[in-house]
TrEMBL record:
It catalyses: GTP + H2O = GDP + phosphate + H(+). It is an enzyme of class 3 (hydrolase). One of its GO terms (cellular component) is mitochondrial intermembrane space. Residues 108-149 are annotated as: Disordered. The keyword Ribosomal protein does not apply. GO terms for biological process: membrane organization; receptor internalization. It is found in: Mitochondrion inner membrane; Mitochondrion intermembrane space. This is dynamin GTPase. Its main location: mitochondrion. PANTHER family: DYNAMIN. CDD domains: DLP_1.
């Protein structure tokens, strides 16, 4: 709570210490407004001519008074705003200041009651005059109702009627917080369209390097937060939105386009982020027109939007690129175009004729209708020189000049003491400035001379509000046109179908789960068993080749008659079974199935829509791999345990045997086919059947020694000269294939013969059928355990992991970002969002325009000066 003391009154008050609505009311440039009260419980607003308005404000009164006065807040607020708007409507320009003052005093005298003035000392004695009109009940202790005052000001002729009708004060005032509402609309428009087609004005700060732009902005905000340094640190426009938060003591900044920073309460951190963002533009590129959006929320800032731009270069330095001057100039030109308000910052110690800011502003705003001049560093010239600059007629600006002294404090002990607990330096800056102007009040209190950061703040608020308000109709038309286009496009392209990022994410996740369910069908028991049989069939062929088909005694096996037991072949059959059952089937079958599952996840997360969401796809793959990894070794052990009995003995039954025998025959057929295919490839490569035959005959002759050396160097075999060595290798391979085909043929006929009918010792005589039966038993048992240990767990756990680790991990922003990774969804959402925002803006604009229309006629009719 601030204590407004008599000292403050005498020094023309610090407006920033007043409640917001009082600040708004006092934006009406009424000369001689003072605030007083012997204590902070009480405030008098004294208008020139003797009328004094007094009221208790809950924001400046001690707690014991609050309950009594709380209900006055709204009345006071709306009353003053009404009065203010009425004045604003009739007094649009800063020019004619004296005329306005006269006019206002005329109004006030209309309801002042015969010119009886209250005390001008700021004491409660001021209530003497206010009771004449302010309190309809004539109670000397009740402060007047400011809403009543406003109503009187709006309608002096009906004063009695209005004074008896308090219900009018409870009407919602749609034009309350007009600037705030317009700034909100502006922010929405900026987020829809960066092309400036749809835009409400902002205040653009221009000036040469070191003219004091940053100091002015920091004085307005009350914190040091802008990038500092010699190396041209302002390279991007900073779009600064100040949001007045009267009901919170918290001060913080937010970067809407950098949401990861969240609320930044430390202004040094804001400065660091701004510096980094600026320095992200390489020095070689000079400047970028991509703005940095910064919002500052504080009870000490007014509602304003300001754009800070790089300073005009006057003298190019050695370390600055040649085209820097050009780049900055064209960047500034883009921003100073209508409807923006130009804040032309000029240092008092530099001749205004040389001010690049004024030069630029005159190019686009020759009459100075939308330029406010700020003369900084007034302390660096004599007070008389200062006032001469501020009242200059050479470069007149319709909105005038305001002089400031806002050198950033050096943070010495005095300044640190002057700063508040949040490091807010506004007190220190203000105090310094106030002292300066107070010490030179003779020069600076001349009529028409506007000085002080607070005056500047108020001026900016007024100018911005008026400028925004004046642009309402144009913006509204542009927004309506844009809305019509967007609605048409939405109808044509999406048939008005709405979508949300959440529904898209749900759809994408559901799609994945459906894909998983479909994929699960290819991991059913029969399917897995078939895969394992395929894997084991290769192993059976290898064992047959190694143990039987390469055995020189194979012919004996073919001759074994039914019932005959031969030790050699019985041991072979045992060795073959052992080799097969101990070939690491637990590990290999688990890996085979896990690879299959990996493949399924890979396919599901590679195709659309996951092709747009590579990061999410990668995460999903990782979940799946984690589950598989966690199950793999246990599954492998379980399968291996289940197969243990087969390592010692395998019993077969008639039915199993017959089936195994059939499968073995067809496996031999396949092997036969494969050998034949290879043989014909070799024939082709070598040059046909005859050529191959002749090479084979050569080799046979050489090998049995019947080939005589006909030519060539001594010691070299003759065939080396006769054929291409590669063909000779191929021919050798063909010979082996031929032998294999003969064996396969023989074994097939044995398998088909009565020798391999189910019966005693048949496993020994027909190893092909026996190993096939064993491999089928192994595949069957393995598939059972793989289902239980791996597949069921995977298909249960994986969808749950997707929900818990993908879906529930995402916050609103992440969901929106995810959805927007898909270009067609992004286009749909963008258009839908644009349409929604435009509708929202249109509604807000219509409300404001209706309120403006409703308000305008009465004030114009009664008070227009023009
Ligand atoms: N004496 C005095 N010095 C001031 C005043 N305002 C600013 N300065 C000093 O002038 C210098 C430049 O001020 P800045 O606010 O950084 O100027 P700028 O225009 O932002 O400079 P650039 O960022 O380089 O474009 C600093 O050393 C300030 O302390 C003032 O009112 N009086």
């Amino acid at each position: 709570m601030r204590n407004i003391t008599n000292t403050a009154i005498n020094r023309n008050i610090s407006f920033s210490s007043l409640p917001r609505f009082v600040g708004r009311a006092l934006r009406v440039p009424i000369a001689g407004v003072t605030v007083g009260g012997g204590s902070f419980a009480y405030a008098n607003y004294k208008f020139e001519g003797g009328y004094t308005l007094s009221h208790y404000s809950p924001l400046i009164c001690p707690p014991e008074f609050r309950s009594k006065t709380a209900n006055l807040v709204d009345d006071v607020s709306s009353g003053f705003t009404d009065a203010y708007l009425a004045l604003r409507g009739t007094l649009p320009s800063a020019d004619g200041f004296h005329e306005r003052r006269e006019r206002l005093n005329e109004w006030l005298s209309g309801f002042r009651g015969g010119g009886r003035g209250g005390g001008d000392d700021g004491s409660p004695s001021g209530s003497r005059s206010r009771n004449d009109k302010g309190d309809p009940n004539g109670n000397p202790d009740t402060p007047p109702n400011p809403a009543l005052l406003a109503a009187l000001a709006l309608s002096p002729d009906d004063s009695n009627k209005v004074s008896n009708d308090d219900s009018q004060d409870s009407q919602p005032n749609l034009l309350m917080n007009l600037t705030r509402k317009l700034i909100e609309i502006r922010s929405i428009l900026v987020s829809i369209d960066q092309s400036d087609n749809l835009n409400l004005p902002s205040i653009v700060v221009i000036g040469s390097q070191s003219s004091g732009k940053s100091s002015v902005l920091e004085a307005i905000v009350g914190h040091e937060f802008l990038p500092k340094g010699n190396n041209m640190v302002t390279r991007r426009p900073i779009e600064l939105t100040l949001v007045h938060t009267p009901h919170s003591s918290e001060e913080y900044g937010e970067f809407p386009s950098l949401p990861s920073f969240g609320k930044v309460q430390d202004f040094a951190a804001i400065q660091k982020i701004l510096t980094d963002q600026n320095l992200s533009v390489p020095a070689s590129q000079c400047v970028s027109d991509k703005p940095i959006d910064l919002r500052i929320y504080s009870p000490h800032v007014p509602d304003l939007t300001l754009i800070d731009l790089p300073g005009y270069v006057q003298l190019s330095g050695m370390d600055q690129p040649d085209d820097l001057r050009e780049s900055i100039s064209s960047l500034c030109d883009k921003y100073i175009a209508p409807p923006n308000v130009i804040l032309a910052v000029c240092a008092a110690d530099v001749d205004l004729a040389n001010s690049p800011a004024l030069r630029a502003s005159r190019r686009v705003d020759a009459l100075g209708m939308r330029t406010v001049g700020v003369v900084t560093k007034l302390d660096m010239v004599t007070p008389d020189e200062g006032t001469a600059i501020l009242t200059n007629r050479k470069y007149p600006l319709q909105l005038g000049y305001v002089g400031v002294v806002c050198k950033a404090p050096k943070r010495g002990i005095i300044d640190v003491l002057a700063a508040d607990s949040n490091g807010n330096m506004s007190g220190a800056i203000m105090q310094r400035e106030e002292n300066y102007f107070h010490n030179h009040s003779q020069s600076f209190s001349k009529p028409g001379v506007l000085v002080g950061t607070n005056t500047l703040r108020k001026k900016l608020m007024e100018v911005l509000e008026r400028s925004m308000s004046d642009n309402l109709q144009d913006v509204s038309t542009a927004v309506q046109n844009e809305l019509t286009d967007a609605s048409y496009q939405f109808k044509v392209e999406y048939n008005d179908r709405r979508m949300s990022p959440e529904s898209y994410v749900a759809q994408v996740v559901d799609g994945l789960k459906v894909g998983l369910r479909d994929g699960q069908l290819s991991f059913s028991k029969p399917q897995v068993r078939e895969k394992l049989e395929g894997m084991l069939s290769d192993r059976v062929m290898y064992i047959l080749e190694q143990l039987y088909w390469n055995d020189k005694r194979l012919a004996e096996l073919n001759k074994l008659s039914q019932g005959e037991v031969d030790q050699y072949w019985t041991q072979k059959a045992d060795a073959a079974r052992s080799l097969l059952t101990k070939s690491g089937i637990g590990r290999d079958s688990s890996t085979l199935v896990a690879d299959g599952l990996r493949g399924l996840v890979e396919v599901l997360t590679t195709d659309s829509p996951y092709s747009y969401h590579s990061e999410a796809a990668q995460r999903i793959r990782e979940f799946s791999y984690e589950i598989l990894r966690s199950r793999l070794s246990a599954t492998s052990d379980q399968v291996e345990n289940a197969l243990k009995p087969f390592k010692f003995e395998v019993e077969t039954e008639d039915k199993e045997w017959n089936m195994g025998r059939r499968h073995a025959i067809s496996a031999l057929d396949k092997e036969h086919e494969a050998c034949n295919a290879k043989l014909s490839e070799i024939r082709q490569r070598v040059g046909g059947y005859r050529k191959l035959k002749s090479i084979i005959s050569y080799i046979e002759q050489v090998e049995d020694g019947s080939m005589t050396q006909k030519s060539g160097k001594e010691g070299e075999p003759a065939w080396k000269l006769a054929y291409n060595p590669a063909h000779l290798v191929e021919a050798r391979q063909a010979m082996l294939l031929g032998e294999r085909l003969a064996i396969l043929k023989l074994r097939k006929s044995t398998l088909q013969s009565s020798q391999c009918k189910y019966g005693k010792g048949v496993e020994t005589r027909c190893p092909e059928a026996f190993l096939t039966v064993v491999s089928e038993k192994l595949a069957y048992t393995s598939s059972l355990f793989l289902q239980i240990e791996l597949l069921q767990t995977f298909f249960d756990q994986f969808p749950r992991e997707i929900d818990s680790r993908l879906m529930y991990d995402l916050d609103r922003q992440a969901i929106s970002n995810f959805a927007r990774e898909n270009p067609s969804v992004r286009a749909h959402l963008d258009l839908q969002e644009k349409k929604d925002k435009l509708e929202d803006v249109m509604r807000r604009l219509e409300t404001l325009m209706h309120a403006k229309e409703a308000q305008a006629p009465s004030s114009r009719r009664k008070y227009s000066l023009f």
